[in-house]
Amino acid sequence: MISRNWVESIVGAGVLVVAVWFLAYSYSTGAGNGVSEGYPVIAKFTNADGIAAGADVRVSGIPVGRVAGLHLDPVTYLAEVRLVIGPATKIPTDSSIAVKSESLLGGRYLAIEPGAEERMLEAGGEIKFTQPGISLEDLIGKLIFTNNQDKN
C-alpha cells in the first residue's frame, strides 16, 4: 500500500515538472520574449486580418519588433497598425511590409522587406508600401470557380 502512494507521488511530481516546463516554454516563445522598448512606426493596410496586438514583426525571419495596436482610420477606412521596432534595428524609408502566415493553421505576423534607401525611418514614421495577407479561403474559392468555368 505504501509503495503505491509513493509511485503516485512520483508521477504527480513528474506531471507538475512537465506543466512548469510548458509554461516556461510558452512564456519564452510568446509575448514574454518580445521587444519591450523601441521606436514606434505605423503601416496602413487594406486588410490586416489575423494580425493582433503582440504579433511579431520580422526582418529575414528574425523578430525585430511587435504590433503595439490596431485601429481603423475613419477617413480612409484603412487598418492602421502601430508597431514598436527594437532600437537596434533601423528600417530604410523605402521598405515594404506584408502580412504573412506562420503556417496553414498558425497565426500571422508582419514581415518587413528592407529597401535600398540610405535614409532610415524615424520614430513615428510610416512604412508606405504594404501588402495584405493572402486569404486561404479566397484562394480555394478562386480555384473552385476557375475549374468550374473551364468545364462549361
Q: Which structural category do the helix and sheet elements fall into?
A: alpha/beta
Which shape, going by the Cα principal axes?
extended
Spatially, the strands of the biggest sheet line up as: 7-1-4-3-2-6-5-8
Number of strands: 8
What does this structure look like?
With 152 residues, the protein is α/β, with parallel strands linked by helices. It is built from 2 helices and 8 strands. The protein has an 8-stranded mixed beta sheet with strand order 7-1-4-3-2-6-5-8, with no helix packed on it. A hairpin with a 2-residue loop joins strand 2 and strand 3. The protein is extended, with a radius of gyration of 22 Å. The relative contact order is 0.17. The mean pLDDT is 85.
Spell out the key features of this protein.
152 residues; eight-stranded mixed sheet; alpha/beta
In short:
This protein has 152 residues and is an alpha/beta fold. It is built from two helices and eight strands; from the N terminus they run αββββββββα. It has two domains: 1-33; 35-134.
